[in-house]
Amino acid sequence: MKNTPFFSLLKLRQVSMLFICCLMAFACTAQVLPGAARTELYLPALQGKAVGVFANQTSVVDNMHLVDLLLSKGIKIRKIFSPEHGFRGTADDGKVINDSIDPKTGILLVSLYGAKRKPSAEDLKDVDVMVFDIQDVGARFYTYISSLQEYIEAAISSNKPLLIFDRPNPNGFYVDGPILEKKFSSFIGMQPVPIVYGMTIGEYARMLIGEKWLNEEANKQLSQKQARVTVIPCAGYTHKSKYKLPVRPSPNLPEMQSVYWYPSTCFFEGTVLSEGRGTSKAFQLFGHPSYPKTMSSFTPHSQEGAANPKLKDQVCYGWNLSGTPEQVLQQVDGKIQLKWIMEAYRLFPNKANFFLPTDHFNRLAGNSTFIEQIKAGKTESEIRKSWQPGLDQFKVIRKKYLLYEDF
User: Taking the model in full, what pTM does it have?
Assistant: First the structure.
């Protein structure tokens, strides 16, 4: 009985320590810093230099745009390079963007989603250091990783030092999907990686370089140790993090639910169905006028970022996958959800016209096998089994280039 107070105090201390550890773990998770926020790691390399910055509306630090942050620190920005959707992130999917002058800063905006997709030697002639800071969403067909590759190649070819400001991957907590076959390489998928590759943009850059997946000229200079590519890492991030984006990454990924569903529902871009563009729930809604009217309904309309959405102004019937971010995360369950594309095909009344008469679906899938598996009525288990050898091989490659604790 005399020992009871001692053991009670010990137990209380253990519980208190556990509580403190939980609070510390929560604080670490909450305090995820993108590379751009870690100014002490990169400002010395930019001071006194003419800088070229690849950025868009996602390039923010505590609600301040990177360009404004650098200017406030006395950094001289010579040019701003912009990707698909433009510097302000409002242009339509696939829309050609021209060069212009940023009205706020007066800096030249060079579009890398128009007449060209990488900076020319002329563009870089008066640039001393290049910076890349774009928020990726972790899906192979999202074009920012293709822009990253082209930008790295331009930096190496022009012998310019490049700083890549890393950002957390909101879909970086799993790896899934078919590996892209080179035959289907395009700007919506350039390398033999799965649809969800589970890497930050900095880790992906390390893989491009380490696996020699860049163009021949860049790889040659890399072998001669002439390249100077540096990743400024995030702080407080791991691949177990469920990082919520502070800014929408593009016009048709308006909220986290769309970001989480995107790897699973982007397949509908390669079909006659609406993928929800022209609504406030893009990639959470999908459907077509020919489905039963008893299903969920929505009507795509012209809006910023989707001036002419598929099935514009037509009432579509189909599926509504919206919910809270937490609910969607539970549904996604760390893998691409195949049931939606399979069920949509099964219920479509005119199956011969379900897929667009282009190769777009195959470019999204990265092969011509997936479309045939759907048409043949293969089970999800059978389809996933066909992906596994490629996924196993990719995971071995991926591990070599991780900068953060894995899931």
Answer: 0.90
